[in-house]
Amino acid sequence: MADVHATHAMINAAVLAELGPSGVLINIARGSIVDEDALVQALRDGKILAAGLDVFCNEPNVSQALLELPNVVLTPHMASTTDATVQAMLSMTFENLKDYFAGVPLSAQVN
Asked: What radius of gyration do the chain's Cα atoms show?
């Protein structure tokens, strides 16, 4: 399992500065990889052009500062919602239900 601390705020002010004034940050991975304070500041100062975010540091709460920026597109954590991923999640759910009622170990147990 990945160490989430190793990637925390890895997209910081220095990385955003490297994107430059025509740069656009897209994050559909994990909210914690972006330093949101640095992102807000870069967007306000024109250090980057825009951002598209499907994940946030404090999910499900979205930073008020992000909500107020005109150069940000925010979506409700739906980037993985494709026909294929929904079908895979349903298949896994039904497989786990079958295993549970059969009394065998679950293939994808979450505690």
From this structure: 18
